């Protein structure tokens, strides 16, 4: 990711909705060295922010709705959540929740693109988003998995003003040309029950060592692989079923 701080239109935060918050805290603390701190306010419902040093890097939360899947979610920074929601629906997407204020921290909404991939909007108040990117244990890349790549290329630049760097192998998203993510077309290798989704990638010091830790407790969906002219990556699933990627810190993602 060429972004090193939250910028309008770019990914600013990632949070896990999980069926077992305590187990997730233990798993990711061991995996990434996070220091989790739960919000003590009753209204926060157990929302837990993970830190590396003094920097907030991600969040872990219980499932707030019966229909909510166990999954990692990606938030994109916006200056006006209400206006962005209107842009989402005008471009063919759907509003799933909000917009709503989260204490004085910011304004939040959940939406889906026309292909069904869910994402979040964050209008910063006192909390701008992650305080660290690209370092081991922090967010470093986001990837859209979709069965409708043409629709995605039409939708996201219209909503967020993203730049698009297409290629035969891999399309990349950017803000002002600074790439922060990419897109993979879901073919018949993906089971039909797997929905379109956004996949966060965390930087790690060693992809193979990280994968070995996950093998003891979770599932390896894609073994460590060196992408031609790109990073070394793996795709993993935690014990509760949430999928995430890792890549070697320092590699160009």
UniProtKB/TrEMBL annotation:
InterPro entries: Anthracycline_SecMetBiosynth, Glyas_Bleomycin-R_OHBP_Dase, Glyas_Fos-R_dOase_dom, VOC_core
Pfam families per the UniProt record, alphabetical: Glyoxalase
PANTHER family: GB|AAF24581.1 (PTHR33993:SF14), GLYOXALASE-RELATED (PTHR33993)
VOC domain mapped to chain residues: 10-124, 138-249
Transmembrane segments: none
Protein name per UniProt: VOC family protein
Superkingdom, natural source: Bacteria
Organism whose genome encodes this protein: Streptomyces cahuitamycinicus
């Amino acid at each position: 990711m060429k972004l090193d701080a939250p910028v309008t239109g770019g990914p600013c935060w990632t949070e896990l909705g999980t069926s077992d918050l305590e187990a997730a805290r233990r798993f990711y603390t061991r995996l990434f060295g996070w220091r989790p701190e739960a919000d003590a306010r009753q209204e926060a419902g157990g929302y837990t922010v993970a830190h590396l040093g003094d920097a907030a890097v991600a969040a872990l939360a219980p499932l707030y709705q019966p229909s909510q899947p166990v999954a990692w979610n990606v938030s994109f920074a916006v200056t006006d959540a209400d206006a962005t929601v209107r842009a989402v629906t005008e471009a063919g997407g759907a509003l799933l929740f909000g917009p709503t204020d989260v204490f004085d921290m910011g304004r939040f909404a959940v939406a889906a693109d026309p292909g069904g991939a869910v994402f979040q909007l964050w209008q910063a108040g006192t909390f701008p988003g992650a305080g660290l990117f690209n370092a081991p244990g922090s967010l470093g890349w986001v990837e859209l998995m979709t069965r409708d790549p043409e629709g995605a290329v039409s939708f996201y630049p219209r909503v967020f003003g993203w730049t698009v760097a297409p290629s035969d192998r891999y399309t990349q998203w950017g803000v002002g040309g600074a790439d922060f993510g990419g897109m993979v077309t879901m073919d018949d290798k993906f089971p039909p029950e797997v929905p379109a989704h956004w996949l966060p990638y965390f930087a790690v010091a060693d992809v193979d060592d990280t994968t070995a830790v996950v093998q003891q407790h979770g599932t390896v969906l894609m073994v460590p692989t060196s992408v031609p002219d790109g990073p070394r990556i793996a795709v993993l699933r935690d014990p509760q079923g949430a999928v995430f990627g890792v890549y070697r810190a320092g590699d160009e993602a």
